[in-house]
Specification:
Chains A, B: It catalyses: tRNA(His) + L-histidine + ATP = L-histidyl-tRNA(His) + AMP + diphosphate + H(+). The structure is a homodimer. Chain A is built from 19 helices and 16 strands. The two termini of chain A are 50 Å apart. In chain A, helix 9 (233-240) runs antiparallel to helix 11 (249-267). Chain A is 35% helix and 14% strand. Chain A is an alpha+beta fold. The first copy, chain A, is elongated. In chain A, the strands form three sheets. In chain A, strands 1-4-5-11-10-9-6-8-7 form a nine-stranded mixed sheet. A five-stranded mixed sheet of chain A has the order 13-12-14-15-16, sandwiched between helices. The interface between A and B is large, with 119 and 119 residues.
Chain lengths: 565, 565
């Protein structure tokens, strides 16, 4: 592939990729769905630089700090690429004292020198979509709204309840550890072990606790009895009825929070997909209250997804210390012990801002959506569903073409002028960059991207001030199958009418089929831009040929996800 | 600012900044305007990684290569942050042989270790918005569409003709140099000298040519006669009438291209702001045909903007070789010899893809819009125009609040439930995170961000299944000044009706005032999302209080720009 004299391979750096074509369209649709939800809840966005002073990131990520990318020392400051969007947000809050409260979202790339598994959305450069609420407020109100937002995002993506929002609380977890007899200095490390329960069976985790981390076997077994429990308010009541647990101050405070949370989630109509899961621990040190994690089908590794693991999963290469660089760059996409992992995660972090600002603490709670993992799940399901409609690459509405017989000039200036008229009216239009194009080539170019309309100009028609509008893909026998001649002066109105009719058709088809598209939540009408005065007739019968090319991008059928447990 | 034990200052790296608040809203509006134009012309987007293998960037930027940021060597590949979006695009084209033609846009950050001038939009991390057309096509058709796109972008931004699109052609320039007797090996370096004419007076440039670069004085003086010339088709005719020039093959080919270009620009109605400017040279080596540069008021440095430079401008620190690191990080925002520079630039580069792919050349033409510079101009003008309406920080449409007398519970669950109803209907709503909030605090929170509507709930009204809707800022005496009671079951419809009425009012006010807002080009109706069945009455008289809070973000008056020369 390399030309003469070029000694390197043409590629992107390991763990990164170019995004293009339909992948890009799907990813953009995910972004716009998520952004719409964030704005619906009054959030504003902040943009921080891709790199930060190295000291800002130091001491925030525990042993994962080794995954941080550093910039070379070229003189001046020493910087690192951001590892997440949370630490830069905390740095911003600490720097900007006039903002004591804010709801902010941030959609941006983060960087981790981790071992990649590209097709599972585990990359070294990947997007995070973060929503955080900062400020001193009454307990659990922002925490509950985060869960509500999470349901709106996944419903908006068309997952229709096929996801589980796992909830737990650091104080509940710490309470369990204290009651089970874990010494104070071992609580964080035992918590890290519990965090692995979604990847490893209990026997492995227990072994790590007792053999690696020196916990008494009795304590480990007690923990084992708690961390298998999950439920909703039933679990809450059960824990509240346990006098030993309630005598623990941390547990009592945690459960009071959880009770409030459930009350608010009920009012928010956001209980359905929630699972209060005592095994949920989250690795990061900075969480201080409620923690969230969203999983769906594909989150778990294949090797442990069904029943109990038959063979013990291979130890992750990441955990084998330092050495073995040889395999570090290897892509683990086909390793069955690697799943997509959680598709969103977060929690409350009341002390992080104080790490920068000292006394001025600003409590925060937030969640981060892993767009690349969400994308890889949607992509895999679309590949599996042969009937899934493919999105279009571009949004061109009209292809402007010319035709003529002998002595055909190509009508290039006329085509440019007609495109100009359409562009001025805000209509998306293209033409072939050829002075004398052949008609079939022009139709091929229009069809290649599923362009719905053509405007065809000929010398005779132009002389009469007329052009032909042709809808692509009409059924045989349709009255407009061969196109309709319209006055040049009516062109914009006639084109708009047809674009609008197509949009309304797509809407009707979706309603009829009960399909759900990315881009709205249930109950929200999908509205079509149209001049107010224009009335549109929609034919009763919708022929196969008129079905939309892009509408039902992500139907319910295209999304497979596990029902809430 | 640093807490105890923290030895570093809280800040972003030099030459970078956090974007927030109204700045972010304005920047997003610029992005959406530009993206809309790009999509209108059928473009698709591609996303490449922020860093590339170091070898990909090597040998592409001449002496500016020293400004490239490298990543540290942490084992594995050696990478650099991208310097522009053009080289990654060429790398992508070379890697993806199934794409021989594409119209692509890319809006992303690029990185240059240059001396910053923050308030002038000269930063080390900044956005570029690139549009490029790749493929073998008939001459000058894509090149002309790039100019058309450029006019749509600046008209869409509301600059209303107050910008100049400078055009020139590498072959015309080379022709001039050849005719004036510049030796072949000096053509590129003499071209670089000409490129400085927007910053330096001719005498300085001439000196560089003769004293630094050893050009004969006679040749320099001949060049001087050409490079002051600018015009449109008049200049083209004048050059074509010059037999000496037309005898030069390069000049002849270049002028043939320019003639086609003018023909197509006429058909595209895109001639008005164009200036065929023989002094336009562009620094980058890879251009092979037409070159573009867009300037406006604020582009030129203050020191040389008016009349002739009284004092010779200070030599740029950048040009003083290598040493003097001390000042390199210093911000030059207040240096009068630094202007914003061009707000967009580009050209044809037919050989760049071949640098990666060898034989498989793909000719390209494109333009890059400097969003941060565009932003800094808009921002400065808004600051100068005290009447300019300020954009809102967020888009919240309804603030849900409660009030009550003695024994007031705060109605928290009811507020959450009403917010939920609104969110489900796609309406942007917020509430105060307080169990028992005071009414004035709730109104303050709503007013702070200019929220247009409130829903106020009280215990008595709730018992009757009713809530109050209150439009903010109605004039005294308005029939709804104190709000209107509506049935809870009609809440969504009643809220929608008022949101729609507000939007239509804003539209009317803009039409009446002949204002131009960011987000559309002339002629395109601004349409309001509304359920199809809903009819809306717009009151004839528009009171001061009902004027839109955000509509006329960037009025003509707010944009100062030089008329096309």
């Amino acid at each position: 592939m390399a030309p003469k004299g070029q000694k390197f391979e043409l590629k992107t750096p390991k763990g990164t990729k170019d995004w293009e074509g339909k992948d890009m369209v799907i990813r953009d649709k995910i972004f716009s769905t998520i952004t719409e939800v964030f704005k619906r809840h009054g959030a504003v966005t902040i943009d921080t630089p891709v790199f930060e002073l190295k000291e800002i990131l130091a001491g925030k990520y525990g042993e994962d700090s080794k995954l941080i990318y550093d910039l070379a020392d070229q003189g001046g400051e020493i910087c690192s690429l951001r590892y997440d969007l949370t630490v830069p947000f905390a740095r911003w809050l600490a720097m900007n004292r006039d903002h004591q409260t804010i709801k902010r979202y941030h959609i941006a790339k983060v960087y981790r020198r981790d071992q990649p598994a590209m097709t599972k959305g585990r990359m070294r450069e990947f997007y995070q979509c973060d929503f955080d609420i900062a400020g001193v407020y009454d307990p659990m109100l922002p925490d509950a709204e985060i869960v509500r937002i999470t349901t709106e995002v996944f419903e908006g993506l068309g997952w229709n309840g096929r996801y589980t929002i796992k909830l737990n609380h650091r104080k509940v977890l710490d309470g369990i550890f204290e009651v089970c007899g874990v010494p104070a200095e071992k609580i964080r490390t035992i918590s890290s072990a519990v965090d692995k329960l979604d990847k490893l069976p209990w026997a492995e985790v227990r072994k790590e606790m007792t053999e690696e981390k020196g916990l008494a076997e009795e304590a480990a077994d007690k923990i084992g009895e708690y961390v298998v429990q999950k439920g909703q308010k039933d679990l809450l009541s059960k824990l509240q009825a346990n006098e030993t647990l309630m005598a623990n101050a941390s547990m009592k405070a945690g459960l009071a929070d959880m009770e409030l949370l459930f009350t608010y989630l009920e009012a928010f109509d956001a209980l359905e997909n929630v699972s209060f899961d005592l095994s949920l621990a989250r690795g990061l040190d900075y969480y201080t209250g409620v923690i969230y994690e969203v999983v769906t089908e594909g989150s778990a590794p294949l090797a442990t997804a069904s029943t109990a693991a038959v063979a013990p999963p291979k130890p992750s290469k990441k955990s084998s210390s330092g050495k073995g660089r040889v395999d570090f760059d290897e892509d683990r996409s086909s390793d069955p012990s690697v799943g997509v992992g959680s598709v969103a995660a977060g929690g409350r972090y009341d002390n992080l801002v104080g790490m920068f600002s000292g006394k001025n603490q600003i409590p925060c709670v937030g969640i981060s959506f892993g767009v690349d993992r969400i994308f890889s799940i949607i992509k895999a399901q679309m590949a599996a569903d042969k009937n899934a409609e493919q999105p279009r690459n571009n949004e061109t509405e009209v292809f402007v073409m010319a035709f003529g017989g002998k002595g055909f000039t190509g009508l290039v200036k006329e085509r440019l002028a007609i495109c100009t008229t359409l562009w001025e009216a805000g209509i998306k239009a293209e033409f072939l960059y050829k002075v004398k194009p052949k008609l079939p080539n022009q139709f091929n170019a229009a069809e290649k991207n599923g362009c719905p309309l053509c405007v065809v100009i000929g010398e005779d028609e132009m002389a009469q001030g007329k052009v032909k509008i042709k809808e692509m893909g009409l059924r045989d026998g349709h009255p407009e199958k061969e196109g309709v001649l319209v006055n040049l002066t009516d062109l914009v109105a006639e084109v708009r009418k047809r674009i609008l009719r197509k949009s309304n058709l797509e809407e009707l088809i979706q309603e009829a089929a009960g399909l759900k598209v990315v881009g709205g939540i249930r109950g929200e009408p999908e509205l079509v831009k149209a001049p107010k005065s224009e009335s549109v007739e929609v034919p009763e019968k919708i022929s196969e040929a008129e079905k939309p090319a892009e509408g039902s991008l992500l139907s319910q059928e295209a999304i497979g996800a596990v029902p809430a447990s």
